[in-house]
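Below is how a single chain appears once it has passed through the pipeline. First comes the sequence as given, then the structure the pipeline wrote out for it. We keep one example in the README because the format questions we get most often are answered faster by looking than by reading.
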Amino acid sequence: MTDGFHPDFPDAGQGSAGPDRARVHRVRNADLSADTAQSTGMRRIEAISGKTVGSEHLWTGQTHVAPATASSDHHHGESETSIYVVAGHPRFVYHDGEGEVALDTEPGDYIYVPPFVPHREENPDPGEEAVVVISRTTQEAIVVNLPALHRLDGE
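Resulting structure:
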Protein backbone atom coordinates (compact mmCIF):
# COMPACT_ATOMS: atom_id res chain seq x y z
CA MET A 1 0.00 0.00 0.00
CA THR A 2 1.47 3.31 -1.02
CA ASP A 3 0.43 6.94 -1.30
CA GLY A 4 -2.10 6.65 1.51
CA PHE A 5 -4.36 4.11 -0.26
CA HIS A 6 -6.16 1.66 1.97
CA PRO A 7 -8.74 -0.79 0.56
CA ASP A 8 -11.21 -0.08 3.39
CA PHE A 9 -10.95 3.66 2.78
CA PRO A 10 -10.85 4.16 -0.99
CA ASP A 11 -11.06 7.95 -0.64
CA ALA A 12 -7.93 8.11 1.51
CA GLY A 13 -5.52 10.58 0.01
CA GLN A 14 -8.27 12.33 -1.94
CA GLY A 15 -11.10 14.74 -1.33
CA SER A 16 -11.09 17.94 0.68
CA ALA A 17 -8.40 16.73 3.07
CA GLY A 18 -5.98 16.32 0.17
CA PRO A 19 -3.32 13.67 -0.33
CA ASP A 20 -1.01 15.01 2.38
CA ARG A 21 -3.55 14.22 5.14
CA ALA A 22 -3.55 10.51 4.29
CA ARG A 23 0.14 9.82 4.70
CA VAL A 24 2.39 9.29 7.69
CA HIS A 25 4.93 12.06 8.24
CA ARG A 26 8.43 11.68 9.60
CA VAL A 27 10.03 14.70 11.24
CA ARG A 28 13.74 14.19 11.78
CA ASN A 29 15.48 15.62 14.82
CA ALA A 30 17.58 17.76 12.47
CA ASP A 31 14.38 19.30 11.06
CA LEU A 32 12.91 20.50 14.37
CA SER A 33 12.24 24.23 14.43
CA ALA A 34 12.55 26.86 17.15
CA ASP A 35 10.34 29.13 15.01
CA THR A 36 7.43 28.85 17.46
CA ALA A 37 6.00 30.72 20.43
CA GLN A 38 8.52 31.17 23.23
CA SER A 39 8.63 32.13 26.91
CA THR A 40 11.61 33.68 28.66
CA GLY A 41 13.80 31.07 30.38
CA MET A 42 13.00 28.14 28.10
CA ARG A 43 13.37 27.07 24.49
CA ARG A 44 10.50 25.39 22.62
CA ILE A 45 11.24 23.30 19.55
CA GLU A 46 8.40 22.37 17.21
CA ALA A 47 8.05 18.92 15.63
CA ILE A 48 4.39 18.22 14.80
CA SER A 49 2.08 21.13 13.97
CA GLY A 50 -0.17 22.57 11.33
CA LYS A 51 2.88 24.29 9.88
CA THR A 52 5.18 21.24 9.80
CA VAL A 53 2.85 18.36 8.85
CA GLY A 54 -0.61 19.88 8.41
CA SER A 55 -2.04 18.62 11.71
CA GLU A 56 -5.42 20.10 12.59
CA HIS A 57 -5.72 19.33 16.31
CA LEU A 58 -2.24 18.53 17.62
CA TRP A 59 1.04 20.25 18.42
CA THR A 60 4.05 18.27 19.67
CA GLY A 61 7.55 19.44 20.43
CA GLN A 62 10.33 19.67 22.98
CA THR A 63 11.02 22.18 25.69
CA HIS A 64 14.49 22.77 27.11
CA VAL A 65 15.04 24.62 30.38
CA ALA A 66 18.67 25.48 31.16
CA PRO A 67 20.18 24.66 34.56
CA ALA A 68 19.10 26.94 37.43
CA THR A 69 16.49 28.67 35.27
CA ALA A 70 12.75 29.29 35.38
CA SER A 71 10.40 30.15 32.55
CA SER A 72 8.16 33.18 32.64
CA ASP A 73 4.64 32.58 33.93
CA HIS A 74 2.33 31.63 31.06
CA HIS A 75 -0.67 29.57 29.93
CA HIS A 76 -1.60 27.81 26.69
CA GLY A 77 -5.08 29.17 26.06
CA GLU A 78 -7.64 26.56 25.05
CA SER A 79 -4.99 23.83 24.68
CA GLU A 80 -4.81 20.84 26.96
CA THR A 81 -1.13 20.02 27.47
CA SER A 82 0.52 16.66 28.06
CA ILE A 83 4.15 16.69 29.20
CA TYR A 84 6.60 13.77 29.33
CA VAL A 85 9.83 14.33 31.26
CA VAL A 86 12.78 13.06 29.20
CA ALA A 87 15.76 14.39 31.17
CA GLY A 88 16.49 16.36 34.29
CA HIS A 89 14.17 17.15 37.20
CA PRO A 90 11.95 20.01 36.10
CA ARG A 91 9.51 21.55 38.54
CA PHE A 92 6.06 22.66 37.39
CA VAL A 93 4.57 25.50 39.41
CA TYR A 94 0.98 26.77 39.34
CA HIS A 95 -1.33 28.76 41.62
CA ASP A 96 -4.24 26.83 43.18
CA GLY A 97 -6.11 29.96 44.35
CA GLU A 98 -4.48 29.96 47.77
CA GLY A 99 -0.81 29.82 46.90
CA GLU A 100 1.83 28.38 44.63
CA VAL A 101 1.98 24.60 44.23
CA ALA A 102 5.20 22.98 42.97
CA LEU A 103 5.31 19.54 41.37
CA ASP A 104 8.82 18.08 41.30
CA THR A 105 9.40 15.52 38.55
CA GLU A 106 11.92 13.02 37.26
CA PRO A 107 12.49 11.28 33.91
CA GLY A 108 9.53 9.10 32.98
CA ASP A 109 6.92 11.26 34.74
CA TYR A 110 3.92 12.75 32.95
CA ILE A 111 2.23 16.08 33.72
CA TYR A 112 -1.19 17.30 32.56
CA VAL A 113 -1.91 21.04 32.33
CA PRO A 114 -5.58 21.96 31.75
CA PRO A 115 -6.55 24.82 29.40
CA PHE A 116 -5.92 28.39 30.62
CA VAL A 117 -4.06 27.30 33.80
CA PRO A 118 -1.18 29.72 34.47
CA HIS A 119 2.06 27.90 35.27
CA ARG A 120 5.81 27.99 34.83
CA GLU A 121 8.58 25.46 34.41
CA GLU A 122 11.61 25.62 36.67
CA ASN A 123 14.88 23.75 36.56
CA PRO A 124 16.44 23.93 40.03
CA ASP A 125 19.39 21.70 39.05
CA PRO A 126 22.55 23.83 38.72
CA GLY A 127 24.24 21.44 36.27
CA GLU A 128 21.70 19.57 34.12
CA GLU A 129 19.32 20.83 31.44
CA ALA A 130 15.69 19.72 31.79
CA VAL A 131 14.10 18.33 28.61
CA VAL A 132 10.42 17.47 28.15
CA VAL A 133 8.23 16.42 25.22
CA ILE A 134 4.98 18.35 25.00
CA SER A 135 1.77 17.63 23.11
CA ARG A 136 -1.13 20.06 22.89
CA THR A 137 -4.65 19.81 21.54
CA THR A 138 -4.21 22.69 19.11
CA GLN A 139 -2.19 22.68 15.91
CA GLU A 140 -0.06 25.63 16.97
CA ALA A 141 1.80 26.38 20.18
CA ILE A 142 -0.47 28.85 21.95
CA VAL A 143 1.59 30.71 24.55
CA VAL A 144 0.23 33.61 26.59
CA ASN A 145 3.00 35.07 28.74
CA LEU A 146 1.79 36.57 32.03
CA PRO A 147 3.15 38.95 34.69
CA ALA A 148 2.18 36.48 37.47
CA LEU A 149 0.68 33.02 38.07
CA HIS A 150 -2.67 34.54 39.05
CA ARG A 151 -4.51 37.66 38.01
CA LEU A 152 -3.22 40.78 39.69
CA ASP A 153 -6.74 41.90 40.61
CA GLY A 154 -7.09 38.83 42.87
CA GLU A 155 -9.52 36.87 40.68
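The radius of gyration is 18 Å.

See the next section for the split statistics.
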